[in-house]
């Protein structure tokens, strides 16, 4: 979650139907300049709050040192809202997934300065993390906020929220768990509504778009857009 759109997907699905890092990807690598502080906190904090990717299921209870509901955020950007949500919901544990080093360093800084104990970071492709590390039916929620809308029609196939990825997410949710998406791009919101509505494991919690949940804070980018008359659409679907 950030002032810039984040996650992204690639072009095609494999013939086998299995999601691979070549078939769908939750990001596009961008060159981002890191500040000295981001470098420092990345180096100092990731050994403490980082979870290394490995192609096997991870015990999140062991990672956090307790039993609690687990929420995954895909593409947290610079992490401001991620930190706010984690601080506001101390009874739950949050796993943020982001590939871009400046954002990871920024969230590391927020974790350290805020003394946040219920937030961990994986710096890796979210598709592979969900596919390989997260057991089926184990998550209480998944957040995808302001993914890259890829506005040009020829780029729509690169969007993150597409059927195969939504199916993967739904399989990792526990019954009653939720998938919360938000976008400021109306056409993408319409596509999200269609794609999520077509997944048999998910049911819409609202009649169409959902009211913005209180736990999702407004970003500076979002506030600026609202003042300019731009819309923001939230979608909250639950695992049946």
From TrEMBL:
InterPro entries: SAM-dependent_MTases_sf (IPR029063), tRNA_(Gua-N-7)_MeTrfase_Trmb (IPR003358), tRNA_methyltr_TrmB_bact (IPR055361)
PROSITE patterns the record matches: SAM_MT_TRMB
Catalysis performed (reactions): guanosine(46) in tRNA + S-adenosyl-L-methionine = N(7)-methylguanosine(46) in tRNA + S-adenosyl-L-homocysteine
Pathway membership: tRNA modification; N(7)-methylguanine-tRNA biosynthesis
Gene Ontology CC terms, in alphabetical order: tRNA methyltransferase complex
Domain of life: Bacteria
HAMAP family attached to this UniProt entry: tRNA_methyltr_TrmB (MF_01057)
Record family assignment: Belongs to the class I-like SAM-binding methyltransferase superfamily. TrmB family.
Location of the region described as Disordered in the Swiss-Prot/TrEMBL record: 1-22
Protein's gene: trmB
Keyword tags: Methyltransferase, S-adenosyl-L-methionine, Transferase, tRNA processing
Protein name in UniProt: tRNA (guanine-N(7)-)-methyltransferase
UniProt-listed Enzyme Commission number(s): 2.1.1.33
One Pfam family per UniProt: Methyltransf_4
PANTHER family: 3-DEOXY-D-MANNO-OCTULOSONIC-ACID TRANSFERASE/TRNA GUANINE-N 7 - -METHYLTRANSFERASE, PENTACOTRIPEPTIDE-REPEAT REGION OF PRORP DOMAIN-CONTAINING PROTEIN
Residues the record lists as binding substrate: 152, 184, 219-222
Biological role stated in the UniProt entry: Catalyzes the formation of N(7)-methylguanine at position 46 (m7G46) in tRNA.
Organism name: Zoogloea ramigera
GO MF annotation: an example: tRNA (guanine(46)-N7)-methyltransferase activity
Record flagged with keyword Methyltransferase: yes
Keyword hit for Iron: no
Residues involved in S-adenosyl-L-methionine binding: 73, 98, 125, 148
């Amino acid at each position: 979650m950030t002032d810039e759109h984040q996650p992204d997907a690639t072009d095609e699905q494999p013939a086998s139907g299995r999601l691979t890092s070549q078939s769908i990807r939750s990001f596009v690598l961008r060159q981002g300049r890191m500040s000295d502080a981001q470098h420092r906190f990345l180096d100092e904090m990731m050994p403490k709050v980082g979870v290394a990717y490995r192609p096997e299921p991870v015990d999140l209870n062991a990672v956090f040192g307790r039993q609690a509901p687990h929420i995954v955020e895909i593409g947290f950007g610079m992490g401001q809202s991620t930190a706010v949500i984690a601080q506001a919901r101390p009874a739950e544990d949050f796993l943020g997934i982001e590939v871009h080093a400046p954002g990871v360093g920024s969230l590391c800084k927020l974790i350290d300065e805020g003394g946040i104990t219920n937030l961990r970071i994986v710096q890796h492709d979210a598709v592979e993390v969900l596919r390989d590390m997260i057991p089926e039916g184990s998550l209480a929620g998944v957040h995808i906020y302001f993914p890259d809308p890829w506005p040009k029609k020829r780029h729509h196939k690169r969007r993150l929220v597409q059927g195969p990825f939504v199916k993967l997410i739904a399989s990792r949710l526990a019954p009653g768990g939720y998938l919360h998406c938000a976008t400021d791009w109306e056409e993408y919101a319409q596509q999200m509504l269609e794609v999520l509505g077509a997944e048999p494991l998910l049911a819409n919690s609202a009649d169409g778009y959902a009211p913005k949940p209180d736990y999702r804070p407004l970003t500076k980018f979002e506030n600026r857009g609202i003042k300019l008359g731009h819309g923001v659409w939230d979608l909250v679907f639950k695992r049946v």
